[in-house]
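Amino acid chain:
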Amino acid sequence: MNDLNDIPAMTENELETLGVLLEDEAERQDSFDFFAVHGLITALLTGPVEFDIQRVWDCAFDEKLGFTSVEKATVTELLGKMIREIRAWLDSGQDFPVPSELTLADEEDEPPIESWAIGFMTGVMLQEEDWYNRDEENVAESLFPIMYASGLFADEEEMADIDDDIELSDQVCGGIPAAVIDLYLFFHSQG
């Protein structure tokens, strides 16, 4: 467990730069925005498979990138910093600081938490067998708030019932930070 003061935080300027570059790329082609990339990286670091940055590039971006070489170098550097920060938070054992409001009650087409959760669930689905083979019930239970927030399972009756109650929806989304740490500890604690 790390001291929270030792967590290597990205600066506001770095976050803004990365956010703008990822947003521009998402508008150019069908790629992940900042929140979805953050969620994807969080899932890949949380899960049982050794982290590989290439999976992020393959999954989050179109094969033909719209970045200039300078932009790609900047994105690569900033993703490296983001990975170190996320890993340090996971190692801290503290509730994970999701980089958005924990609510779906947003005027935007896609609230940032939904985008983050879609990125996270994409990471889970990339390695589904590895995620579920040790204790499917426990993992599914811990994943529930993230599954709900992603909207990917909105057709399921249980999810629709939650959607009908804003307070319950916010309560479920509010469980995401603890759920991330529970999953990380499940996969990475020795014992």
